[in-house]
């Protein structure tokens, strides 16, 4: 009986439904989309290419007046799940995408509630452009932005809001990175009123992911060996004159090791420091 009621409900809801049209009763109404993200994993921060790769869950909520029903008329059904291609969805994309894949790849279902509220929670792996400044490497902090907005709708057609007025990225399911610590991750709703330019309003939500590099690995494998090599180079000058050949060998060996360390740093960090090329 329940499946029959659900089948009848779906048939009634989508009989005259057009997913190509914004869910508004009059053309000048605005669709309000509430939006948030959960950061699940910081997969990689590529310093050379200045790209942050992250695993996130998006959450979008909006109302579609055409997809509401009286629960009592359909056996008490309060929620149904439909393929995302069956309904109208806001075309939110990551504007500072670094790999050209703007769409959410996994086609997860949309939850439709009897009130007409729709909830869509797709997972996504994003590569976002991030300006990297390694002036204080390896004791550096970075700020990587993720800017989301509608691709084709202006703010008068689709406006964004922070879901539940949450001004932080949700980190409750975050898997800690072995390289970076999350310092903070605030969210900012930006509204651009362009009326004086005779242009429509624009809105976006920007997340600022502030990360701090974990220094233990670099301290053990880079800083301490460099200090030791430098100390050995200084000790060479305290060797007696009779040990000139030994001193020369030790000095050249340590100089070679120092050059190898510098080469490793250059290979990893051929990027800009405060808009100036990194040179060693």
Automatic annotation (TrEMBL):
Keyword field: Cell membrane, Ion channel, Ion transport, Ligand-gated ion channel, Membrane, Postsynaptic cell membrane, Receptor, Synapse, Transmembrane, Transmembrane helix, Transport
Membrane topology category: Multi-pass membrane protein
Compartments reported by the entry: Postsynaptic cell membrane
Annotated Gene Ontology cellular component terms: postsynaptic membrane
Chain ranges passing through the membrane: 216-239
Domain of life: Eukaryota
GO molecular function, one term: transmembrane signaling receptor activity
Chief site of localization: membrane
Keyword Oxidoreductase: no
Record-annotated Neurotransmitter-gated ion-channel ligand-binding domain positions: 6-215
Family per similarity comment: Belongs to the ligand-gated ion channel (TC 1.A.9) family.
Protein name: Acetylcholine receptor subunit beta-like 1
